[in-house]
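Q: Please design a sequence for this.
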């Protein structure tokens, strides 16, 4: 974790920002809950446990700054709540999501399946893709198993 914080600190410094104690507390919460796609309010509640003096506005500003600097990805899964997801050091692009329309669960696809499409866009349209994100909306295996349906509400015969 410390290595990632140091790297993010360098990113901030290269853009003229400091890693303040409030920003560090926010980053630590994001790192500790990396799989959870936290909302700003979720982050605030967890940061408040570590740094009781921090305010919600500070957490919002920190998340917006980290989003602008591409340290985190601000994502919306269609539920009206912005969520924050740390970008990985090794991935060229953001990962993709499988979003269940029944239970709201989110599973991640870490592989980048769109490389051939990016190459085709470059070749056929002279368009260089800088980033992409792909979200699939459907019914997860947990809901399908629980309901024992085919995903359209039909029971197998």
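A: Design:
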């Amino acid at each position: 974790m410390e290595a990632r914080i140091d790297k993010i600190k360098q990113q901030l410094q290269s853009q003229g920002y400091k890693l303040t104690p409030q920003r560090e507390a926010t980053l630590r919460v994001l790192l500790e809950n990396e799989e959870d796609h936290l909302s700003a309010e979720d982050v605030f509640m967890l940061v408040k446990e570590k740094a009781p003096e921090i305010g919600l506005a500070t957490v919002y500003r920190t998340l917006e700054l980290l989003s602008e600097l591409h340290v985190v990805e601000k994502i919306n899964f269609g539920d009206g709540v912005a969520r924050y997801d740390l970008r990985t050091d090794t991935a060229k692009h953001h990962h993709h999501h499988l979003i269940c329309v029944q239970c709201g669960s989110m599973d991640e696809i870490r592989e980048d399946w769109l490389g051939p499409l990016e190459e085709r866009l470059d070749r056929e349209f002279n368009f260089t893709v800088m980033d992409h994100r792909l979200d699939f909306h459907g019914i997860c295996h947990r809901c399908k198993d629980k309901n024992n349906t085919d995903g359209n509400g039909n029971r197998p015969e």
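Q: Thanks. Anything notable?
A: The chain has two domains: 1-90, 91-157. Helices lie at 2-14, 21-32, 40-50, 56-68, 115-125, 141-147.
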